[in-house]
Design brief:
The protein folds into 3 domains: 143 residues, no CATH class; 137 residues, no CATH class; 98 residues, no CATH class. α9 crosses α12 and α23 packs across α24. It has a 5-stranded mixed beta sheet. β3 and β4 form a beta hairpin. About 1% of the residues have low confidence. It is α/β, with parallel strands linked by helices. 57% of the residues lie in helices and 7% in strands.
């Protein structure tokens, strides 16, 4: 299939705006929903991203290795180049992800070579995922980049058939591969998917497609008596699985086979020569747990992968292009710079920021109301994800008790002086009577309480003394102004108010998003 790649746009994006792809074959089939921090940690731990970052910091970032991205739901998602992008993100903050010794190695290289960690990264923008697939497949199926494991390769091809809706001929055309080379991964993936599902359901055993030994599975079903035992064949037109047994009997037999296959060394030993294979199948056929008299009265059983197949035409229409900037300069029609990105890895918060950033400068009240909403919800998300509400309740109760004790002491001194009381008055008993020392749960805290806690306990390590003092001072004033804008009909808002509000809150949002590390 011919694709005019020369028509693809290129654009220089800051690293923070680029989203690592959860659908990357290295990650997708683990069954986990990871946020950006967790994806980066996974790539560091499993895909040698630290080693790549070290190489880049020593030798530089080679030209001609531009990532390929696709714009999905207003996010710049890296389709090809996740390891390189992750390595560059790692170089921006090594201590966040690495041990002290490894982080120091990268930091020394950065200092020694004056490596530009804040560089922008030139990317090619694919119209959609489908059109990027030929490049991705070619790069990772060869030797130029780190080769995918067999399971990753098979899943990539299967995804084009089942999720993108392509037929086998289309995939052959797109990937420039023979029909046999496309049918092979489709067959293996279809049977693997059935086995993976039944293992997880019946035995609570989760297998990772990247680590599964596909060679053993292919050896098994290539043996005709094995297919007869499972009651399966493959459609040679599309590689789909044909199941001739009732679903429950098929799953029972497949479960037994997969429990053996996942012990790859044992299976390789027991399913080797022709005589070994014969004995292996005979042992399965002698198992009294299986019903060999059963037949599928309703005809063929449809495989799970076939049931999920997508429609090609609807997938082809999913094309998103880069939003072009207005010819006006950013400061002329926006309060927040178009280049500014604050990412919390939370869909609602990130969409709130996107809308806030793109509000025209004359939407004065909309900006004030949305900014206050963004402030309150980002604080709540930060405290919740960091598990800080218990500490917030503890410190807020301590502060409330301290302030209440001052009031009670003042009251006691007044009573003693006014009425010449010489006896001692127990301040704690007065506190109890007035219910000033009750402990409250602040897991649904107000904006003021959340802001006070973050201001007093979460900013010290990120700002110097002067910056911290100024930020604390302005945060209170800005918060009060936003409260009035939202709750007081008599309060008027002007453009300068909004500009000041954003200017002074921007560092707070940066600190919250950058310090939001979710432990694995």
């Amino acid at each position: 299939m011919y694709i005019d790649y020369s028509s693809w746009e290129t654009f220089d994006y800051s690293l923070k705006t680029l989203q690592l792809d959860l659908n990357n074959p290295r990650i997708k089939y683990r069954g986990d929903t990871l946020n950006q921090t967790q994806i980066l940690k996974f790539l560091i731990n499993n895909e040698r991203v630290y080693e790549l970052a070290k190489k880049i910091s020593e030798e530089g970032y080679f030209v001609g290795e531009e990532p390929i991205i696709c714009i999905e739901k207003n996010k710049k998602v890296v389709l090809e180049g996740n390891r390189r992008t992750a390595a560059l993100k790692l170089l921006q903050d090594p201590k966040k992800y690495l041990s002290i010794s490894k982080a120091n190695i990268l930091l020394q290289n950065i200092l020694k070579n004056n490596f530009p960690v804040d560089r922008k990264l030139r990317c090619y923008i694919a119209p959609n995922r489908l059109l990027a697939n030929p490049i991705i497949y070619e790069r990772h199926n060869g030797a130029t980049l780190q080769r995918w494991k067999t399971g990753n390769q098979y899943a990539f091809v299967a995804e084009m058939y089942y999720e993108d809706g392509l037929i086998v001929e289309d995939i052959c055309d797109v990937l420039n591969e023979s029909r046999a080379k496309i049918l092979k991964p489709l067959k293996a993936y279809n049977l693997f998917y059935e086995g993976k599902e039944i293992l997880e359901k019946e035995e609570n055993i989760i297998i990772d497609i990247a680590d599964f030994e596909f060679t053993n599975l292919e050896r098994f079903y290539s043996y005709e008596p094995s297919r007869k035992f499972l009651g399966i064949e493959f459609d040679n037109e599309n590689g789909e699985l044909i199941i001739s047994l009732p679903q429950d009997e098929f799953e029972k037999r497949l479960l037994e086979v997969f429990k053996i296959i996942i012990d790859s060394e044992r299976f390789s030993r027991d399913f080797n020569k022709d005589e070994d294979k014969r004995k292996f199948i005979q042992k399965l056929n002698d198992n009294p747990d299986f019903n060999f008299s059963t037949t599928n009265k309703e005809g063929k059983t449809q495989s799970k992968t076939t049931q999920k197949k997508a429609d090609l035409e609807s997938e082809k229409k999913k094309v998103t292009r880069r939003r072009k900037k207005s010819k006006k300069k950013a400061y002329e029609n926006r309060i927040i710079s178009a280049e500014k990105e604050i990412i919390f890895d939370n869909e609602k918060l990130d969409n709130l920021f996107f809308e806030l950033k793109h509000l025209p400068i004359d939407k004065i009240y909309s900006f004030a109301v949305l900014l206050r909403t963004y402030l309150e919800q980002s604080l709540y998300f930060y405290l919740k994800e960091k598990g800080l509400f218990e500490d917030l309740s503890l410190k807020t109760n301590e502060e409330n008790e301290k302030n209440s004790l001052k009031k009670v002491t003042l009251l006691i001194n007044y009573i003693k002086g006014k009425y010449s009381v010489s006896e001692g008055i127990d301040s704690q008993e007065v506190m109890r009577i007035l219910k000033f020392n009750n402990k409250k749960d602040y897991s649904s805290a107000s904006l003021k309480i959340m802001l006070d806690y973050v201001k007093n306990h979460e900013l010290e390590n990120h700002l110097d003394t002067s910056q911290l003092r100024n930020l604390k001072h302005y945060i209170d004033r800005i918060k009060d102004g936003l409260d009035l804008a939202v709750h007081n009909i008599e309060t008027f808002v002007d453009l300068e108010h909004n500009k000041r509000a954003w200017k002074h809150l921007e560092p707070l949002f940066e600190i919250l998003s950058n310090n939001l590390i979710i432990e694995e």
